[in-house]
Amino acid sequence: MKVSIVGLGYVGLVTAVCFASKGIETVCYDVDEDKLKKVSRGIAPIYEPGLEELLTQSVRGGKLRVSSRCSEVVHNTDLTMITVGTPGDQDGRVDLSQVKSAAAEIGEALVRDNKKHLVVVKSTVPPGTTAGLVRSIIEDESGKTCGVGFSLCVNPEFLREGNAVYDAMNPDRIVIGEVDEGSSAKLLMLYEEFYGERLPPVLITNHVNAELIKYANNLFLAMRVSAINMIANICQRIPGADVEVVAKGIGMDHRIGPHFLRAGLGWGGSCWPKDLMGLKHLSRELGVDVPLLDATIEVNENQPRMAVRLAESELGELRGKRVSVLGLAFKPGTDDVRGAISIKLVGLLLERGAEVVVYDPVAMRNARAVLHDSVSYADSAQECIKDSDCCFIVTEWEEFKSLKPQDFVKLMRNPILIDGRRIYDPREFMGKLRYKAIGLGT
Ligand code: UGA
């Protein structure tokens, strides 16, 4: 089986590299020629643990290659995956322009294709998009009918940034939504070849269910995190309470499970904020009230404000105070700052007149592109906290975990630490400096 990938974003690149690493011939196309050049030289355009090594091996082994011509990638393969971005606006409206162009280019290429090519939509799209927009564009451009001249299905992706290679290799399940009956067969063959005996459970359904599963999945996970963050806020007001212990206790109930129960300053990223707003927009159009979705977003918006209040309760007014922020990536293991809580927190601190200094082990370049010169940039965690009046732990990077109470006491002007990700043991930190943590009652 030969595969083509259209769109070398997160999902496209990881999927391509994983297929190629298992010997499946994979050809990638993207409109960004710089990206294609990098990938062809084995350089990953994004930071993702384990990705570059696999990419280099796959390029060297000749299993992964790139092309700047969409028609070429389509012609030389059995199926094409659309993995372009679907950004959302403030209102949650999903911008499908990249999906439209990809569908048009694939459709054009299919004019001269005499086998029944399979097109797979992996990008996150609102329900109805694949069977509506994508199908009609491909039919118009190719002059062929879906189900006769080509096949079409939806195959949502559930990989997490920072764990993307692992997730792509070890998914919990595969979801395939058919547009034309039987279109899942060829994709299933690919996955059988790829996973072998480790093929995960497969759910084959219709296209709208598959599209909805992706949105609902992200909503459920975000709801869990907002729920535990809400519990954390309650814990903070109750002497002796600790959300870490409460989360452990509820996670032991098999109906709840232990994952995605880490309380913190809130969730971010390029997916949850966009997908929750996308679902909200869809619900508005459908005339359906979504109070749980609204509350999930509201709790999240309040988390960084609550952290600032915690700092103010220790330090008083923040005006003129030097505040250090450790961690800018929306989570560890990535250099992505899209939708990151760090950016929201920095905004709140600047609004209050604080002087902000930031540090992240890998996301400095991306953060600079957003924060410009509104903050100072440190070269290390130690330099960041030096002479500051208050420090926020915003991303739970391993390297921050090795900081000891005496590092904060020695380096900070005023050793006030807000542990926004619960990376320190309160027993070690309390009493040595003013240690406040999310979900820890005083
Ligand atoms: C998320 C989903 O987990 C993936 O399944 C999905 O494929 C992806 O979105 C997508 O739609 O493409 P991702 O955004 O990479 O993946 O990150 P997550 O690991 O899900 O974390 C999301 C946010 O929640 C992060 O800010 C993280 O710090 C926060 N989080 C997560 C918590 O605060 N507590 C937790 O217990 C878990």
Task: Walk me through the structure.
This protein has an eight-stranded mixed sheet with strand order 3-2-1-4-5-6-7-8, sandwiched between helices. The chain has 442 residues and is an alpha/beta fold. The protein has 18 helices and 14 strands. α1 links the parallel β1 and β2. The protein has helices at residues 10-21, 33-40, 51-60, 70-75, 97-110, 130-142, 164-169, 184-195, 207-236, 243-251, 272-286, 291-315, 341-351, 364-371, 381-385, 398-401, 405-411, 426-429, and strands at 2-6, 25-29, 64-67, 79-82, 117-121, 150-154, 174-178, 202-206, 322-326, 355-359, 376-377, 390-393, 416-419, 434-437. α5 runs parallel beside α6 and α12 (291-315) packs across α13. The chain binds uridine-5'-diphosphate-glucuronic acid (UGA). The site of uridine-5'-diphosphate-glucuronic acid has 21 residues, from α9 and α11.
Strand order of the largest sheet: 3-2-1-4-5-6-7-8
Largest β sheet strand count, sense and barrel closure:
8 strands, mixed
Question: What's the number of helices?
Answer: 18
Rg value: 24 Å
- What spatial form do the alpha-carbon principal axes imply? elongated
Gap between N and C termini = 60 Å
Coarse structural class: alpha/beta
Q: What is the helix fraction of residues, given as a range?
A: 40-55%
Poorly predicted spans:
none
Compute the number of strand runs.
14
Mean pLDDT: 97
